[in-house]
Amino acid sequence: MKLCGTDEELRSSLPARWEVQPANHFMIATEAALDTKPVPEGYRMELHQDGPVTRAFVIASNGDLAASGCAAETADVFIYDRIETAQEHRRKGLGVAVMAALRSARKSPESPQLLVATEDGRNLYANLGWTVLAPFAAAVIPES
After folding, report:
1. Euclidean distance between the first and final Cα of the chain, in Å?
2. Global pTM value
3. Which domain CATH number covers 94?
4. 3-state helix, strand, coil in the chain (%, to 5)
5. Rounded to whole angstroms, how far apart are CA atoms 143 and 97?
6. pLDDT, tens digit, for every residue of 88-110?
7. Where are any strands of DSSP class E within 4-126?
8. What's the structural domain count of the chain?
C-alpha cells in the first residue's frame, strides 16, 4: 500500500498486521540539470526500451551490475523508478548517468519529471534541482 502522505496517516488507516516502511519523499524536477558526462572508464551503459518503459543498466568491467533504473512516460508525466547504485560503485556519477540516459528517452520535454526518493536520495536529488512535493508512505503485510 502506498500513500502520498505521512507514515502516521497511513498507519492510522491500516490494520495492525501491516508494517509501515521507512519514510520516502515524492519529488518533482524543477530545474533538474543533469551532467551528461559519459560513464567512467571501465563501465558501459545499456538501454532497453519496451513500449513506454526504458531501463538503463551500468555494467562494470567485471560484468557486475553497478547501477540501474527505469523510467516510464505517459501522456502527462515522466516517472523515474528504482534508481540504484551498488554500494561499491557509489560516488562515481553512475546514478546521475542512469538518470541522464533514461531522460534521453523522454519524448515530451514539457512533461513533469517525478520520482520517489529515500531519505538518502532526497538530499542527492535536491542537489540536482528536485523539490519535495509530499511525504510518501508505504506499508506491506510481512510474510509469515
Report:
1. 18
2. 0.86
3. 3.40.630.30
4. 20, 40, 40
5. 35
6. 999 998 998 999 999 888 888 88
7. 19-20, 24-29, 43-50, 53-60, 65-73, 78-85, 113-118
8. 1
